[in-house]
Design goal:
Blueprint lengths: L1 H17 L2 E7 L4 E7 L4 H12 L7 E7 L2 E4 L17 E7 L6 H4 L3 H7 L24 H6 L4 H14 L5 H13 L7 E6 L5 E6 L3 E5 L9 E4 L3 E7 L2 E6 L7 E5 L2 H21 L5 H99 L5 H63 L16 H4 L8 H34 L9 H11 L4 H8 L4 H10 L1
Helix pairs in contact: 4-7, 9-10
Length: 563
């Protein structure tokens, strides 16, 4: 079976040599790219093709990494791709990743694409889109961090959304840079760790990063025991598994350490050489290419500033127009409601006037009838007086009837007078009702005229006719822009950006303080505990590095060898 496998591998190798091309798949941090490469291509040919495809010019931070057995390796630029220990199956898979990290992301990362490749994922807050639950599918926090706090997903989302909403309007570039500035201050940022042993055989960790070489205890990747900046190192080499570091200080001894495998030594050497070159490069005058890139970046920032101002103005005008439209619609609805109420009042006034007129007519007729009856009673009384009956009994009866008739006549006269007054009052109410009807009609006419004035599509003579939200009225000619004014605006924006950055740091500290009481101490890892201790002592990565390098190189080498 072994012979069959060897034959198969030999056959595959023969086929690859006979072929003129081979296929690769490049996995970037947001997409996959596939290329057909010539067999004669070196690593640099493939790497340059990927960078051109991505539009990347700051190529020195990145590399093509591939998996090999139980470790990883970076594609060498000066060797043919197929002559290296790359996987044999096609398409050959490479990962386009950051190989070296900047000391100061804000100063060193010039291109937007470079910054974006160091950090992927951001968008502006929109309350219409980012409703409760929008983070449910996003893995914004590691599971370990979520489990470390006694907080529900809804509690995390509430706090994250509040911060997200407060920074609404930030550009993606600003947000990514703030993220990178926070990340670069973390203790493990950009550090590649390797298991090593010093000459005493003590197990240690070697950390390689942008600042230099760091030696850690195996259970503490945060706080190095000693450090050697790149400007103190003159030469690095290895023989088999043994690494040799020659300090620049001739008084200091050469110090050595052993790694686990030869292949790991190759990786360590690659990272050391690349980080050392970048360290020294940062401390020299920028090359012509970098100067051109920075000039182009400044011009691009100025152009973006003008474009942002234009878009902001357009957005402001659009929002003002929408507010004006909403106010018109609200006012029209209000006027419509007032018109409906006036119509109802008019209808009630008309009905009241008709009713009062009818009552007045009835009261007038009743008054006439009572007056007629009073007159008839008076006539009857006179007739009774004339035709009085002689007898005492008859006279008494007659007087009684006369008294009753007189009482009836008096009551009828009073009722007639009351009815007359009521009729007069009803006439007065009728006049007032008709006057109210007239006022209601006038109010309705006034509201109707206002509604016509405010309706969409109609513009009265008093309204300006030259308002336009077209892009033509808002366009800018960058060539004619006052550069001094633009520089002042950019400087102002920079100050505002620094204030925003400071506010963001304060906000993060407030959030950390707020959720600290919800932390489950029993779930903290040893690294969590070390980080908390460093924070309480005010020890940061940079302060610790400065403190470690205060001692002479000779004493640090001796300290390393005695660990």
């Amino acid at each position: 079976m072994a012979s069959a496998l060897a034959a198969k591998m030999g056959f595959n190798s023969l086929m690859r040599k006979q072929a003129k091309t081979f296929n690769v798949r490049i996995s970037t941090m947001e997409s996959d790219l596939e290329f057909s490469c010539e067999v004669k291509w070196k690593g640099k040919d493939l790497f340059d093709l990927v960078c051109r495809t991505l539009g990347l010019r700051e190529t020195w931070f990145f590399g093509l990494r591939y998996n090999i057995k139980d470790t990883v390796a970076w594609l060498k630029m000066d060797k043919k791709v197929l002559d290296q220990e790359v996987p044999k199956e096609e398409p050959i898979i490479f990962h386009f990743l950051a190989k070296f990290y900047p000391e100061n992301a804000e100063e060193e990362l010039v291109q937007d694409i470079t910054q974006h490749l160091f950090f992927l994922q951001y968008g502006d807050y929109d309350p219409a889109v980012h409703k409760p639950g929008f983070l449910a599918e996003e893995e914004l926090l590691p599971k370990r961090v979520i489990n470390l706090y006694q907080m529900t997903p809804e509690m995390w989302e509430e706090r994250i959304t509040a911060c997200y909403a407060e920074h609404r309007g930030r550009t993606r570039d600003e947000a990514e840079m703030e993220y990178l500035k926070i990340a670069q201050d973390l203790d493990m940022y950009g550090v590649n760790y390797f298991l090593i042993r010093n000459k005493k055989g003590t197990d240690l960790l070697l950390g390689v990063d942008a600042l230099g070489l760091h030696i850690y205890e195996p259970d503490n990747k945060l706080t190095p025991k000693c450090s050697f900046p790149w400007n103190e190192i003159r030469n690095i080499s290895y023989s088999d598994k043994e690494f040799t570091i020659k300090p620049l200080d001739k008084k200091a001894n050469v110090f050595k350490f052993n790694s686990s495998r030869l292949r790991v030594n190759k990786l360590i050497l690659q990272l050391c050489i690349g980080n050392h070159d970048l360290f020294m490069r940062r401390r020299r005058v920028d090359s012509l290419e970098v100067q051109q890139m920075k000039a182009q970046a400044r011009e691009e920032r100025a152009r973006k500033q003008v474009e942002r101002q234009r878009l902001q103005r357009e957005k402001q005008l659009r929002e003002e127009a929408e507010r004006a439209r909403d106010e018109l619609e609200r006012r029209l609805i209000q006027l419509q409601d007032e018109a409906d109420m006036a119509n109802e009042a008019l209808l009630r006034s008309e009905q009241t006037a008709d009713l009062l007129a009818e009552k007045a007519q009835i009261a007038e007729e009743e008054a006439k009838l009572l007056a007629q009856k009073a007159a008839e009673a008076e006539t009857e009384m006179q007739r009774i007086k004339v035709t009085a009956i002689r007898g005492q009994e008859e006279r008494r009866l007659m007087e009684q009837k006369m008294l009753e008739a007189k009482m009836v006549a008096l009551k009828m006269a009073e009722e007639s007078e009351r009815r007359a007054k009521e009729a007069e009052q009803l006439k007065q109410d009728l006049l007032e009702a008709r006057d109210s009807e007239r006022r209601a009609k006038n109010k309705l006419l006034e509201i109707t005229s206002k509604a016509v004035y405010m309706s969409p599509g109609l513009a009265p003579d008093s309204m300006p006719q030259d308002v336009s939200f077209s892009r033509e009225n808002l366009s800018f000619d960058f060539k004619d822009t006052d550069m001094k004014r633009l520089s002042m605006e950019i400087e102002k924006e920079k100050v505002e950006y620094m204030e925003k950055s400071k506010h963001l740091q304060e906000q993060l500290n407030e959030l950390k303080t707020e959720i600290e009481s919800l932390k489950l101490k029993e779930r903290e890892t040893p690294l969590d505990i070390i980080h908390n201790q460093n924070t309480e002592q005010g020890t940061s990565k940079h302060s610790n590095f400065k403190k470690l390098t205060l001692q002479s190189t000779k004493s640090r080498v001796a300290f390393f060898e005695e660990l």
